[in-house]
Amino acid sequence: MARTSRKGAAQQVSTPAERVWRVAVYVRLSLEDSGRKGADTIGTQIELVTGYVNERPYLTLIDTYIDNGASGADFDRPAWNRLMDDIRAGRVDCVAVKDLSRFGRNYIETCEFLEKIFPFMGVRFLSVNDGYDSDHEGGHSEGLIVALKNLINDKYLRDISRKVSSSVKARRERGEYIGTFAPFGYKKSSVVKGKLVPDEETAPIVRQIFAWRAEGIGQSTICQRLDEMGILTPAGRLREQFNVNGANYYRASIWQPKAIKKMVQSRVYLGHLEQGKTRQAVYEHRPLEVIPPSGWQITENTHDPIVSVELWEAANAVEVARRKEYFEDRPRRELPDNLFKGFLVCGTCGNKLVRLYSKKVNPSGKAYEYYNYNCSLKRQHPMDQQFHMVRLETIYDAVFPLVTQRLAMAANLGAVIEKRAKRQANPRAVLDAEISRVTRELASINTRLAGLYENYADKLLSEQEYVRIKAEYENRAAALRKRTEELSQRAAVVADVSASDNRWLSAARAFQNPTELTREMLEALIEKIVVNSPIDINVIWNHRDEFALLESCAREEAC
Predict the structure, then answer these.
(1) In terms of residue numbers, what domain contains 83?
(2) Contact 220, 345 (CB under 8 A)
(3) Choice among 44-58, 291-305, 479-493 with the minimum mean pLDDT
(4) Strand partners, 132
(5) Per-residue buried b or exposed e for 182-214, using 16+ beta carbons within 10 Å of the residue's own CB
(6) Strand locations in 104-228 (E)
(7) What is the 3-state secondary structure (H, E, C) of 484-550?
(8) Using an 8 Å Cβ cutoff, are 213 and 227 in contact?
(9) Distance (Å, rounded) from C-alpha 321 to C-alpha 506?
(10) Which of 23, 157, 164, 165 is the most exposed place for a label (fewest CB within 10 A)?
């Protein structure tokens, strides 16, 4: 039997293989749809879209991105932000959704993505139920239909917002409780919708708190007593009963003075509802705003009280007296500006450290003033991770040399980068060229893989040869894809490594040869300062990617 020539087989597979798109499946479910009969579900969305992707050989599924309980009013969603990061890194170049309403309901932002952002980034967009494919020949001609659907989704969102706002207002006027969770000490009635009933387990705790406060016991002392008794905080109960994990662990685990203050001042424990403390309306383009107490909606005698009027007034009389004593009666000293305000965080729990002032007088009568930083949640820390407080001078002496060193590095790196910029007008050109080379090699590997099976089917390769060569090609392709991802991540932060455009270098060059640490330096250079103990203080810098890039370029220049 005549043998088919390898030369002829090579000519047959020389046609470039069809591009394989790296697909991200994006699904979204709003709070309004969750649990509603007949509504969409996360599972059905994933099943539909992944089935569509798997049926097409030119699409390969990379990952699934799920925003459960996220509104479509804007694109500030956790999973969506992660997806955009992967697109910028080159890991994904195609986005698939069930329909445009799952993608977004804001007309302007959705069209911005479909008409500008995605085409600019080279991203293909697929909407399965709408039959929309931005890579299709008719994709651009269908832009009007897509825009119309987005407009309908936007109008639908505003209509829902209007109806929800009207419904909430009517329920408040009827004296119904509309909060998601009942206040501490109460639970929602299982008989009457929107009615609060005292919780037999926590109502006695509320009465005890009011009694302690009426006796003049301080808020911090009350918190310590509750913690010692093992009483769960309001946030802790929500986490235990309803698996609500939004609150910080430490803040949810120990009682805070502000929680006591808020509870004592609340008229809900007198049987009155205080609602309308915040306001937001999408249909009016009104963002979330906090309403002052004068604007709250008060509905009296809507449920059984937990404390008597006499006890409530006695506890609040103490609150008023303590506030007057602190703000009016005691002399107010003028303290210097808090240099590290907002920057210091506890290394154990992440809580912001607070500044404390103290004054001591020695036997000779000379006065000494001290400023210390302390974690208000320290009593909850493990014993081996507690520190009493840290002196201002200790933090200053630890941070200032690090800032000085960082600024000196800026001067050295700036000189190296300026030297490099004189020789190379566009530093990103090297990265772009390498990305192009790797992409071409990857395309060549894919072409060979496409023709490899035909050679095996035509008996030009044995099974052992086919398996071995296929494995070599696949390993090489995987290495090239990883290399492409690494280069794309680096290119995403490069933009231009000239001395004038690097954000970190621009910030650092404004503070050369400092003689003291200033607030402006901290804001320009530092993200936060993590305090683990007086001898363990770590600085987290701003613009870390830009600094790493400069270091990398400097190393290349030295080679």
Answers:
(1) 15-161
(2) no
(3) 479-493
(4) 127
(5) bbbbbbbeeeeebbbbbbeebbebbbebbebbb
(6) 124-127, 132-133, 186-188, 196-198
(7) HHHHHHHHHHHCCCCCCCCHHHHHHHHHCCCCCCCHHHHHHHEEEEEEEECCEEEEEECCHHHHHHH
(8) no
(9) 52
(10) 164
Q: Which residues contact 33 (CB under 8 A, 6 or more apart)?
A: 39, 40
Number of domains in the chain: 2
The CATH number that applies at residue 46 is 3.40.50.1390
For residue 516, the tally of other CB atoms under 10 A from its CB is 8
Tell the burial category of 35 from Cβ atoms under 10 Å away from its Cβ (0-12, 13-18, 19+): exposed
pLDDT at residue 157 greater than cutoff 50: yes
Strands 367-374 and 354-361: antiparallel
| Residue range 132-139: mean pLDDT, rounded | 71
Residue 507: band (very low, low, confident or very high) from pLDDT cuts 50, 70, 90? low
Over range 510-524, report the average pLDDT: 85
Nearest to 60 by CA among 106, 92, 26: 92
User: Would you say residue 207 lies in a domain?
Assistant: yes
Q: How far, in Å, are 236, 312, 405, 493 from residue 389 at the CA level? A: 27, 36, 26, 39
- Helix (H) or strand (E) segment spanning residue 477: helix 463-494
Q: Is 18 helix (H, G, I), strand (E, B) or coil?
A: coil
Task: Assess contact for 33 and 43: CB atoms under 8 A.
Answer: no
490 located within any domain: no
Calpha distance 165→162 (Å, rounded) = 5
Q: How far apart are CA 480 and CA 70, in angstroms?
A: 36
468: Cβ contacts below 8 Å, ≥ 6 apart: none
pLDDT at 389: 83
Position 386 in a domain: no
Q: Can you read off the two tokens belonging to residue 88?
A: 């910028």
User: pLDDT tens, 471-489?
Assistant: 888 888 888 888 877 776 6
Q: In this predicted structure, which of 83-97, 414-428, 463-477 has the lowest mean pLDDT?
A: 414-428
Q: Whole-number mean pLDDT of the chain?
A: 78
Contact 435, 484 (CB under 8 A): yes
231: CATH: 3.90.1750.20
Q: Which residues pair with 273 in a beta bridge?
A: 299
Domain annotation covers residue 166: no
Q: Tell me the average pLDDT across 314-328.
A: 85
Given strand 94-97, what is the order of strands in its sheet? 59-68, 21-29, 94-97, 124-127, 132-133
What pLDDT is attached to residue 16? 44
Q: Is 20 helix (H, G, I), strand (E, B) or coil?
A: coil
- Residue 207 CA to residue 186 CA, distance in Å, equals 12
Q: Which letter, b or e, does each residue of 231-242 get, where b requires 16 or more Cβ atoms within 10 Å of its Cβ?
A: bbbbbbbbbeee
- 357 bridge partner residues: 371
Asked if 116 and 144 touch (Cβ cutoff 8 Å), the reply is no
Q: What is the pLDDT of residue 417?
A: 63
User: Residue 285: which pLDDT band, with cuts at 50, 70 and 90?
Assistant: low
Task: Compute the residue count for the chain.
Answer: 559
